[in-house]
């Protein structure tokens, strides 16, 4: 059996023939895309095992060698990455979503082994009966692999830090198909690189995490969180951002807050702010005090509070991916939401037809980790700003966001649709980029992993 659309390609190995999907196959349309982009690859391999991944890597290398062609090669886990590089046009996609096992190794110590194809909502469900959580993104269908290698800013970030801050080991398949088990003492450079360095080093197939305990003393809820959602009507956005920052920066690390700000009916100076506040822990008097203060930050249009399991907040809907969210996202990390930053946010919302601007206060546990420990180095950041726009407005979004980039301290690579070399330099400062490049040049000299965010 040979590639149906490319009969001059080398024949697929027997181990991959039953896993291959071509454009003529009836299931092609169901698996060619991710959440943000429609792909048109020539071949999709739906891997079932780590051996399938090794064989696919060797096959892609052979295609390139025989055809002297740097065919595009994408790796897809959850398929929810904003970088959108898990699919491509005219190349090969390796889908590892079937490698999705979640195994509790030691419930008392919180040790869990999680395959890269799992999604975080399913991970939360598996961990919850043991009173365990891993702060990991904010949507249940987000893949474990893609989010983890870029750092992982989650809904419990202030209390528990980044996802990578709880990673203690990983299995990695290199560009020559070698399987490496890396941790702090075995292949420490690789272990450093995969904690924030993205997908340019190799394919991580399995992660070993030390999860956090989150216990309700009454035992009625396994992983208790208190969720507050507030919609404000705001006229003076700069004053509101100042007051919000004063409130959240004074709050205990149990509390994480994020905002989505839109221009109400596109009227200058009239903003709708949707706040999501998450208290990591049981409902008590301390939680009540801080939620009560939040409800007084501005005029409230809608307000709701509930107590629930963390796992019930990040349930994975397992929605089929058809490129349905055609958006473009820019972001920057900041040391503070200064008056100048608030002014620039106001200007963008008043003068650009965006989908909204997202603010998160992330200062807390991530700031306690030494910047040299991982390749995610913006450990001085306490805030995060993201501009959401329509995909067709990407050029204008870049232009409008430029003033905020100049005020920022770096970029969160997983949350940016901009794959330019200039953007990559914001994700990884020069000393980090040179170290990552040296590792990538050694482990992948032929640049097999040429998709994703590369140096």
Describe this structure in words.
The protein is α+β, with helices and mostly antiparallel strands. It contains 14 helices and 18 strands. It has helices at 14-17, 28-31, 50-67, 120-127, 144-149, 157-160, 188-193, 237-250, 285-294, 310-313, 339-351, 394-407, 421-427, 430-443; strands spanning 20-21, 43-46, 73-76, 92-95, 102-106, 111-115, 132-133, 167-173, 179-182, 203-210, 212-213, 224-234, 255-263, 271-280, 299-309, 327-334, 356-361, 383-390. A seven-stranded antiparallel beta sheet has the order 15-12-14-13-17-18-16. Helix 8 (237-250) crosses helix 11 (339-351). The chain starts with 13 loop residues before the first helix and ends in a 12-residue tail after the last helix.
Number of helical runs? 14
The order of strands across the largest sheet is 15-12-14-13-17-18-16
Main β-sheet description: 7 strands, antiparallel
Distance between the termini: 37 Å
Relative helix content: 25-40%
Number of strands: 18
> Oligomer, anyone?
single chain
- Radius of gyration, whole Å: 22 Å
Uncertain residue segments: none
Which structural class do the helices and strands define?
Answer: alpha+beta
Write the layout of secondary structure elements.
Blueprint: H1 14-17, E1 20-21, H2 28-31, E2 43-46, H3 50-67, E3 73-76, E4 92-95, E5 102-106, E6 111-115, H4 120-127, E7 132-133, H5 144-149, H6 157-160, E8 167-173, E9 179-182, H7 188-193, E10 203-210, E11 212-213, E12 224-234, H8 237-250, E13 255-263, E14 271-280, H9 285-294, E15 299-309, H10 310-313, E16 327-334, H11 339-351, E17 356-361, E18 383-390, H12 394-407, H13 421-427, H14 430-443
Parallel strand pairs: 2-4, 3-4
Antiparallel strand pairs: 1-2, 5-6, 6-10, 7-11, 8-9, 8-10, 12-14, 12-15, 13-14, 13-17, 16-18, 17-18
